[in-house]
Amino acid sequence: MRLERMGSFFPTRLSFMRTLIRRMNIEKWAISAPRFDLDDDGYGVAVYEADTGAGEVYSLVCFSQYLDPERRTDRVIAEEWDATFTLFDGRPGEGDIRRLAETVPKQEAGRLSASELCLARANKSLRLFEHIASRLASGRQPDVAAVNDVGYLMRTTAVYGSGKFGMADRDKYAERPALSGPFTVEMLSVYLIRCFTLDLVEHVARRRDPDAFVPLKPALKRFLGIGNATGLGMAPFLMGHPILINNWIAAREEALARVRSLARADAGTTARFTELLTRTQQHVAEWNVADERQMTRILRLREDLVAVAEHALADDHPWDALYVWAEAALSLEGQEIVISLMLEPQGALIDDLADRMAADETAPIDPAMTLGDLRAAIAKHYAWALDIDFSNPFNDQKIWYASEKKNEPRLGDRYNEPGIEHEMPFAIARDVQALDGLLADAPAEDRVADFLETQPDYRYILRRVQTTARLPYAEIRSNLIGGDCLPIDLLRCKLSFFGADKYDPRSDRWTRITMYQGAPLATELHDPDADDWLFPVMPC
Amino acid sequence: MLMVSLNEIQVTARKAAQGCGLVYGLAEEAAVAAQFLARSGLSVIPLLADLLEDVEGIQLNPLIVGPSLGDRLLLDPAGPITLRGVMAPDLLPGYLSVLSRPVRISWKGAAYSMDGGRICQRDTTPGHREPVDVVAEFIEPMPPSPEFGTAWDKAPTHGVAVEPEPWRRLQQFAAKILVPESEYSRLHGAGAGFIDRD
Asked: What confidence score (pLDDT) does residue B193 get?
């Protein structure tokens, strides 16, 4: 799949946040806040519990503190935050809380234990937090347009899991059904952080003027998600987990294939599709960003949605006909939003595919493969890479590296930034070309094992080729070191699988997004319509 | 002792191997081998640090020859595959852990039998320091080992204990792949190019 297409994805009902909320709804999870010790300004400790009802409890321990505005930054290199969090496996005792109070606010500089599953931090949206707090404290609701303009009270700037900083490895909990899906621990943590931010703003407002205070209306609460400032940190994960990415995209493509194969659309499904389409048009009308490229795409998307609304569904294989029409008539984002809409009413048909989205990244090399077959695999799956002219410096202009400063992934200019000696292994197209060049001069009947004994440098790229030959979506079919590479497309792809929306690019390598906007509140998780929150709209 | 996660072992080992000059593919496999042995309850960090300290100087360094051992065995499953004159072979069993068939690797003073990606039996006689001939071959299925099974299951729930000094050495090796901070890099390499804090 090409990066341009992946950078146009939208969330679907198979996104991880959606899957988690559905599970919480079906299994009747209970969310509570057994501890909420915050001062008048909202600083202190809180604990939120998620009880799965099946003997498992997960606790988000929250530390809220004063942050000097001059010290506030969303970059990985930050050292202080408005709030820091950890997801504890079970119920933390007082000793645990004391230990975590020492280490969690330090984030990457602290050490956690295998009792902790996730580490995160968040900064306030200064604009919106103060607006809402002051309004509620004076007995009024916030301005809906202001809420829509931001969409969240706080935004996370990193959410770590999987054994980082001494935390529990994924293998500790991967067999538990509640946490077996990809990034479920992180998605649960972010949901509980959302709960905390909603309670925090009401708490601060109530303490300012207990007599005048009014709580936030549920519809407005629901419209507040959690923001996230996403940078290049996600890129190494995507590149280092090709089998996982394949499984995510394969599940999506299988879902689409199942829906397209339906011979007829019943009246209920058609009505639901139409209802969703109307809501989506409003959602996109409310989506405005400062980034010129993205705003141009949004304007085109609005036109596309009008065209979809005017397009009559066929009687025979209506969803397939819609998809084929969309491919020809709509922009990439238009096509992708149509896919999200087509999948949405088909839960009974496709929700099982959520169970196929985990992966074991073990990919042993097949040493018996002949070099002739290897070269054929390159020709079949990497023709796009062989066509790139790497004698043109534009095509290898970019270089990915990790900074000494907190290991922050960065993107540099190979020709104008000297001193970058260790490059991250993202130059797939260039390395495949080099491999193909060597293979062209080698006997076709030789085996991979023979080749690698004398050419061990090619072990990594050879494994990737073999993996892609088995799993067609494992490789991003774009040159990630080219001058025209937009890292933001990589980020959006992963974020869409998380379930994030309202992409708000701030550069070609940094985007704000909103998570859980429109999602049911903790008190609404058992409601029959708890799963209906794709593309939410501003409350009246 | 210091407690670390399996993920930290794998990532630190990989970066340390890269920092000591191993190409990414070899570094990846060294990290998988190290993590396997650590999860099996074996002390691998000092060994890995020593092997990385002198990648080229160690005769038939497992970091270099380890991946090919598994390749050769798969290519010639009737085996056995022999590597002659290997110094410090103790990392080699980790490389065979990815094979799906039961396998035995042995040298003078040690033998490891593995099945289902787990060590089932390990026999060692300490004190051997000379280069040895290593033999690897597929074997009949083995019953699981309670000792190694316990260590394997415990690692993700409790972490792994590692020796602090060799761990620090690995971290120092890993730091070699990081690019020094510069004002230009800080402003342009990531983020929005400004302090994003509205």
From this structure: 47
Q: Tell me if B5 and A421 make a contact (CB, 8 A cut-off).
A: no
Cβ within 8 Å, pair B25-A75: no
**B1 Cβ under 8 Å from any chain A Cβ:** no
Q: From CA A333, how far away is CA A327, in angstroms rounded?
A: 10
Are B189 and A507 a contacting pair at CB < 8 A? no
* Mutation choice for A interface testing from B1, B8, B24, B55 by most A CBs within 10 A: B24
Q: What is the pLDDT of residues A351-396, one digit of tens each?
A: 999 999 999 888 889 999 999 999 999 999 999 999 999 999 999 9
Residues in B closer than 8 angstroms to A370, CB to CB, are: none
Q: Is B186 exposed, middle or buried (0-12, 13-18, 19+ CB in 10 A)?
A: middle
Between CA A196 and CA A268 the distance in angstroms is 38
pLDDT at B28 over 80: yes
Contacts 24+ apart (CB under 8 A), A371-377: A371/A439, A371/A442, A371/A443, A371/A444, A371/A445, A371/A446, A371/A447, A371/A448, A371/A451, A372/A444, A372/A445, A374/A439, A374/A448, A374/A462, A374/A465, A374/A466, A375/A436, A375/A439, A375/A440, A375/A444, A377/A465, A377/A466, A377/A468, A377/A469
For the record, the structure tokens of A204 come out as 């601060």
* Single-letter amino acid code for the residue at A55: G
Residue B56 scores a pLDDT above 90: no
Query: What is residue B87's predicted lDDT score, i.e. its pLDDT?
Result: 82
The pLDDT tens digits of the residues spanning A311-340 come to 999 999 999 999 999 999 999 999 999 999
Interchain contact B4–A (C-beta under 8 A): yes
Which residue from B4, B26, B192 is facing A456, i.e. has the nearest CB? B26
Task: Tell me the chain A residues in contact with residue B29 when contact means C-beta distances shorter than 8 Å.
Answer: 459
Nearest residue, CB atoms, A403 vs list B7, B23, B185: B185
* Sequence ranges of the domains in chain A: 8-123+154-208+224-231, 242-358, 371-468
Give me the residue from A167, A170, A404 closest to B178, CB to CB: A404
Q: What are phi and psi of A497, to 5 degrees?
A: -70, -30
Report pLDDT digits (tens) over A115-147: 999 999 999 998 899 999 999 999 999 999 999
Using the Cβ of B23 and the Cβ atoms of chain A, whether some distance falls under 8 Å is answered with: yes
Task: Give the contacts of A453 (CB within 8 A, at least 6 positions apart).
Answer: B68, B71
A401, β-bridge pairs: A410
Q: B25, A72: Cβ pair inside 8 Å?
A: no
**Average pLDDT estimate for B146-168:** 94
| Main-chain dihedrals φ then ψ at residue A212, nearest 5 degrees | -85, -20
For chain A, helix (H) and strand (E) counts, in that order, are 20, 11
- Give CA–CA dist A365/A444, Å, rounded: 18
Reduced to 3 states (helix: H, G, I; strand: E, B; else coil), residue B125 is: coil
What part of A 226-285 touches B (C-beta under 8 Å)?
Answer: 229, 231-232
Q: At B20, which helix (H) or strand (E)?
A: none
